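Cross-check.
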Amino acid sequence: MTGPLEGLRVVDFSRVLAGPLCARTLQDLGAEVIKVEPPNPDVSRLASPIDANGVSGYYAQQNAGKRNICLDLNVPDAREVALRLCDRADFLVQNFRPGTLDAFGLGYEELAQRNPRLIYVSISGYGQGGPFRGRMAYAPTVQAEAGFTHHSLRHFGENLAAAQTDALSHADCYAGLQGVVAALAALRQREVTGVGQHVDVAMAATIMSINERAHVDLNGLELDGEPAILGAADGSFFVGPNGENFISAISLVGTITFRFFMAAMRRPDLIDDPRFATATARRRNLEALKSVVQAWIRSFSDMASLDTQFDEAKIAIGEIRSLEEVADGAWADYWTATHEVSDRKGGTLRLPGRPWKFSDAELPVPGDPAMQGEHNVEIVGELGYGADEVASLQATGALLGNRAAVMIANVTGAMSTHVDEAASDA
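Predicted model, tokenized:
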């Protein structure tokens, strides 16, 4: 058996998160990925903790297994190498500002003339056209512009000492995955038409599309104190019989879900309690209501018996665990929820595993994270370049080595000097 995308090739011009995640997911499904890295390396190589070879855990998580070629596209010979790579590609993934690759003759229209079957995936903050076309885009700023941050602040604002945004890059990750969805849809269409196409993915549109409560704001609905059903932030936190911290998946405030709790507790009398009779009243007296539920929870001897009672009432609960706890548990072992790759310095990096299992496909073994330019000679050799031509590419600066390692060495040396000077001053 082979991976579902075995035999397909991806040229990955992307950096940081959204694009690399898109290309990595295609690779996880069996495609071959060649990452084209510029002289100034993918900034994620500089994310701590980092090693002297230019490999960080952040970089490895999105790029392990990709072969790497380092090209300076300002040099004409490097552009020719890039064109030859794209001639052989099924997919191209890029997340530069709109127009960047066009300036190097690597836009969709130019490449499609040479390779009509190419599926060209562009991921940007706001799309390849329109009034926000040229804006810099990172997840926190796009989430702010697309209503995500406002929604969080509206929910938590009164409980926050100062405004803050989410800790994870939702806009990047969802946009990367939507890039995969669209790429596979275009692949299916290519089977019918024989022709590829340009796929334009906007992070802002993505973050709006995954907001399952958008219909409330978009239609000006008045909830009269009711939370939207299954609102992720509306579940209540409790402490289990033996000190376990856990959360319920549903709200104590919602009229329907409040009755689920009362059924679990065998307390129908509380439904008519004036403090809890309406959503507005429950919201106003939420701490008192939580105290009643918490007292009931303490009557159980363990989490297993409590979970059985909640399950009977259709209330899902989950203990709050660190990622390390999850990864070391029985479920993670069953699922193969983590895997290890080389850290390129004699050790290993533990990374998340794949989110799918196929009954009739075998996913490829995870590869190691490449150093910048590690596969230069190998890749251009596959494109038909001879030894003299490779030497010429290197001499002109079209083909470059591990600049990331040089940058890291310079930074490390400067930090060491600064520490030594501080010690001598002391």
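The chain has a mean pLDDT of 91. The first helix runs from residue 18 to 28. Passed to J.P. for a second look.
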